[in-house]
Amino acid sequence: MKKLTTPAAWGLGLALPAALAWYYDVYVHWQPKLYPFAMAAVSVGVVLLTLLTLHTRGERKALCYVWKAALSLAVFVGGILLGIPLLVKEAFGRSTEQAAAVAIPLAAAQVIVLFALLLRGKGKRKAGTALLAAGLAIAALGGAALWNLGGMTARYYRTRVLTTEGLASYEAVPGQTAIHFLNVSGDAILLESGGKFALIDAGEDSDDPTGNPDLAYAGYEDYVLDYVKRATGGRLDFILGTHAHSDHLGGFDTLLADPDVAVGRAYLKRYHEHERFKYDYEYDWDNQEVYDQTLNALHTRGVPLIQDIPAEPFALGEFTLTFFNGEYDSAPWDENDNSICLLAEVFGQRVFLGGDLNDYGGKETRLAPQIGKVDLLKAMHHGGEHSNTEAILSVLQPRTVIITNREIDLTDKWFLGPMRRFHQIAKAERIMCTGGFGGIVAVFGEDGIAYFACG
Question: Which has fewest Cβ within 10 Å: 105, 185, 366, 446?
Fold first, then answer.
């Protein structure tokens, strides 16, 4: 045991600061698959360091080993890594990054104290001064690493996340091939090619069919209707509702009620309230009501409804379009899990529109190899966490990411994890939010894709 104590002590002294830096990155940017491993790594390290400290200082009672190690772990995990962030965020209303900025130095302080006690115990028999100096140097190095990581994180995410300028104003050109990302709450995406048009989702509406004040959102149905009529002349080859959430289906009933708008066909999966959702919040929303409104509007206008979503590619002007995730999932994690996705290919360019797809049940992981590399990605679920995972971004590798969101709070960990992955995993050259440009239009040509701001 004595022969193992010294290298183990130095190994832990070197590894724990690095483990804390890794934990900081995982915690702040909320990587769900790595978070348990990061928590386990730093916790095991602290327990081992505590046991070595007790052994070095002459502790020989097994019961003391157990309760002192348990107390050290409880302070480290329960008090510092869980309790302090919760207090900082909930009681003081601070961000995840600010909570970590308080918790991680405290965690480092506990590690330093344990390591100093260990070194002092060994110093009784050896060169205590040299060991203590080396221990302090390691602590300083760990502190510097944490400080540097925090600084790099702040600089990186506050200055390089979003492209916020450089787009010329959009001017319509008859017969062009383009995708219009409208600036709404939710998704409303207009495909255009050679005088043919299709609308993917129709944004949030102002209806509150359940009378729930929490669902009384600002609606964009009139804006979507006006934009579609101006851009298409009132002719849509098809519409697609990706899934039964009001920020995607909400505007369709208003669109279909207008006699000046003609729709060739509609794609919409089946939906019914059932007891199989993994997440209960779906039952508090107006999914069924909004879905029924859309179906009734389609029936009233006599628009053919396709609910068995085809897997074969088909054409819209110059576009070749392919649906993904078209099979109805009767037991999804949530309704986002049922999002119909669309791959659009034109002039050698590839675009993936992923709705609100997530990876709770592994959908992104399974679809990624079927889709392959793309040039433009409409970020899944408006750029949020639990979507846009490493599994799909490492395969799609989009050069440009467009986030359909009216605003993004870069202090919110809901966005920071995907932002990091867009840059570091996908290595995207630009990441744009529709809210920053009043909507974005991607125009396709033989030479590539040009992007314009709707204003």
Answer: 446
